[in-house]
Amino acid sequence: MGDVVVGIHQPNFFPWFGFFLKIARSDKFVFLDDAQTPKKGGSYLNRTKININGESKWITAPIKRTYGLQLINKTYYSATTPWRNNMLKTLQMNYGNAPYYKKNNLLIFALLNYKSNSVSEFNIFFITEICKALNISTSLYSSSSFSINKVSTERLISIVKAINGNVYLSGLGGDKYQDINLFNEDGIKLRYNEFEHPEYRQFKSNTFIFGLSILDIIFHRGLDETKLIIYNHRL
How many folded domains does the chain comprise? Predict the structure, then answer.
C-alpha cells in the first residue's frame, strides 16, 4: 500500500494560502473541530488578515464566549453584530479595484452570507466550498466524529490511524508541541508542509505582503491561476 497523507488543522476563518496547500497535499484532511477555543482574544478561528491600504490588517468576526471549557464546535459567532455586512464593505473597499474582484466577489459574498453562526460549521463550509472552486479533491473529515479522548501527539496519531493514514503532514511549527518519537513508535511518517509563498502584484502595495487570507490571491490572480499555483506547489 502506498502512502496515505493526513493533514489535521483547526477550521480557521478565511485561511491563508498555506492552509489550502496543506489540504491539497493531503489525501485526507481532518478539521480539528473539538479542540478548545481560546478563552480570550482573537485567534485564527475568527479572524484573518487582508490587504488594507497596502498593509496587513486583521478583520474579525465576533464570537460569543462562555465560562469554562468551550470547544470549537460549541462556539458561535455573534448573531447581534452585523459583522458579515461590515466585512462585505471592507472587502469591497479594499479589493474593489483588484483585477479579479468583479469575477469572484459574488462567490465570496455568497459564502460569507452562509447563515450558520456555528464557528466550526461556518468555517468548514467556507473552506470546503473554496476547495471545490480550486479543484482540491481531498477527502474531508471532522475530528468530533471520531470521539477520540487522547491529547497532544497521541491524539494526532489516533486521528491518523482512524482514517487509515500512515503519513502525518505537519505545519512547520509542529515540533514545538509534537513528540516526534511517538510518531516513529507508531509507524507514522512525519512530513512538513514546506513551501515558498507565491508572490504576485498586490493592489496598493509596493512590496509583497505574506500570510494574507486566500481571498487576497483569488481577488488578485483569479481562481484559474490560483488552481495552477496550488497544483505546482503541491508536487
Answer: 1
